[in-house]
């Protein structure tokens, strides 16, 4: 599996203007996108989500786990390792997330104008 790109979510990016919330907070949709290709460790998620503090990322992951979108797996031997992956319920959100992202990209200028006014 390829590493997540640091510029996956640039600061000026339609994903940051997404006016819809999936899950408990504004970062949940971005976390779900990071997990779409398979399980990731916390440190891997931090690369594209560098603007999110570790505390807030932890809270988002816990809430997504509580709501059934993300599965947390901990392996203790030989070294403690924790991974996060989408559940079937979480995977079911991907198609809808793409629709929302496309809508946001199409209405990018309108969203920017609205936020500036």
Automatic annotation (TrEMBL):
UniProt xrefs under InterPro entries: HTH_HxlR, WH-like_DNA-bd_sf, WH_DNA-bd_sf
Keywords assigned: DNA-binding, Transcription, Transcription regulation
Coiled-coil segments on the chain, per record: none
Recorded GO MF terms: DNA binding
Every HTH hxlR-type domain range: 13-112
Alphabetized PROSITE patterns for the sequence: HTH_HXLR
Any Pfam family matching the protein: HxlR
Name used for this protein in its record: Transcriptional regulator
Record organism: Kribbella antibiotica
């Amino acid at each position: 599996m390829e590493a997540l790109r640091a510029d996956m979510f640039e600061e000026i990016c339609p994903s940051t203007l997404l006016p819809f919330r999936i899950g408990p907070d504004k970062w949940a949709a971005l976390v779900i996108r990071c997990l779409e290709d398979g399980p990731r460790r916390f440190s891997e998620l931090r690369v594209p989500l560098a603007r999110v503090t570790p505390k807030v990322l932890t809270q988002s992951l816990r809430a997504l786990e509580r709501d059934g979108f993300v599965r947390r797996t901990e392996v203790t031997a030989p070294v403690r390792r924790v991974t996060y992956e989408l559940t079937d319920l979480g995977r079911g959100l991907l198609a809808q997330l793409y629709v929302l992202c496309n809508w946001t990209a199409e209405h990018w200028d309108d969203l920017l104008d609205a936020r500036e006014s």
